[in-house]
Amino acid sequence: MNERRRPNLPPSSVAGRRRRGGRARGRRAGRPRLLWPVLAAGVVLVLAGGLALRSATEPADTAGASPSAETGGTEEARKDEPTPEAEKAKGEKEDAEKSGEKKGKGAGTGERPDPGSIPSSGPGTFATADGGGDRVGGSGRTLTYVVQVEDGIGISAQEVATEVERVLADERGWTADGKVGFRRVSGGTSDFRVRLATAGTVDDICGQYGLDTGGEVNCNVGQDVMVNLKRWLLATQYYADDVSSYRALIINHEVGHFLGHGHEGCPGAGRPAPVMMQQIKGLHGCRTNVWPYDADGRPITGPALG
Fold first, then answer.
1. Architecture in CATH for domain 126-281
2. Are 129 and 161 in contact (CB under 8 A)?
3. pLDDT category, 50, cuts 50, 70, 90?
């Protein structure tokens, strides 16, 4: 067999070729290792760019503070926060309520004061409400009256007179019979007097006629319709939430006595209590009522009591 024979080369040429081949193989083997630093550098640049963008659009975190504290909370939370206008309105309302509470401890506001603040006795002298009112009622006899308030109890006679006039002018009142009429006066002679006084004074005046009011109730004696200050301000358990209505019951009941009406009982369970019933002693199945007539002009009565 014939063999190809390599040409005889000098040793230096062989060594040089080996070195060149080694360098070529080294470059080919090193290319994959060069890609990792490039890729890593790219990732760093991307992350750095993202952080820079975030720092430009978001506030930096503050140690110990929540995001809602920095931004004012979420939109829903801000809707629930009171506006300056709402805070002002709330303050005005609270001031008005406080003012009403203070006023309620005085004259005819209908508020129920602390029982301990109500004087139990007074000087027994009275102030008369000024002016007068128009005649109200039917075509029969006109009864004149004055309104008086005991001195020193902190209640205006004029305010009490306004309430009494309102009650006696109501279409469900005693004028509904079409006969009796009323007119308030401030001087001269009068047919009767409506007098608001402390419990002690009421007891004294009513006691002169043999009536025992016990520091608790009202009475009519002679020409005097005596109204107990305690009842005027506190009403009773049945009218605790409607003091104004109980005042109407006092006036209608005691003026009813002056007109000659006696006490009556409950006409039946669920029916309105007659105004001449002593409701302070219990309703006995009846419903509360403060007028002698209903809205249709029919009298509200019950069985006569001896």
1. 3-Layer(aba) Sandwich (3.40)
2. yes
3. very low
